[in-house]
Amino acid sequence: xxxxxxxxxxxxxxxxxxxxxxxxxxxxxxxxxxxxxxxxxxxxxxxxxxxxxxxxxxxxxxxxxxxxxxxxxxxxxxxxxxxxxxxxxxxxxxxxxxxxxxxxxxxxxxxxxxxxxxxxxxxxxxxxxxxxxxxxxxxxxxxxxxxxxxxxxxxxxxxxxxxxxxxxxxxxxxxxxxxxxxxxxxxxxxxxxxxxxxxxxxxxxxxxxxxxxxxxxxxxxxxxxxxxxxxxxxxxxxxxxxxxxxxxxxxxxxxxx
Length: 257
Ligand SMILES: C[S@@+](CC[C@H](N)C(=O)[O-])C[C@H]1O[C@@H](n2cnc3c(N)ncnc32)[C@H](O)[C@@H]1O
Fold this sequence. Notes:
alpha/beta; Rossmann fold; two-stranded antiparallel sheet; 7 helices; 11 strands; globular; binds S-adenosylmethionine
């Protein structure tokens, strides 16, 4: 099986630029995330792909007992030094979770799953590690719209994002922070994998794209209104259904129309 070693080298190299920066995606999904997490006081929470640990620390400050897990040595070094009250573990998540019996009340994966080349083992382990009634929330770059070229035909013409090759699984290159790989999968693949592992989707959030959030909405240009209306990030919440034991992922269903 492929592992995540090459990707993790890229994340180690990205760490000086990536760590400690403001996260514009979090601003868009924060309301949904905390609504789905609910009160986390005294709950056991896993921050999956925790990076430099900033979200793990926020959940700890909200009263949770938080474990952060990530594969990047360089990002974890920062996490451990900046947030010593959080427990951090190192793991290549392609291999799934390291604890066969440990369970959590909440599992969060913010902007992580589309960066991992193989998710089969990890998604099965997440389902098994979620307490019945527990909540798994993940955010990803929107499979349909993120990174799609903007076409603007000018006055009288059309303005749109050009979507190609949506149903395929593709590896793309993201140049931010020195560069890393992005593993595109269609949304149906994620939903089928969740369902096949006994996870029930309880919510989906497609926030407006707001790089211009500092400008009052009433003052947005036509372009900014158009830009905001196509979401580039997606958040999904799930809970564990009753029949996880023995569940196996079902194949992705593709419609031919
Ligand atoms: C976009 S960052 C998100 C980090 C963090 N959740 C945040 O919001 O800042 C993606 C994270 O996934 C981690 N990652 C990528 N591939 C991984 C793998 N195979 N195993 C473990 N972590 C991985 C990277 O080290 C990085 O911290």
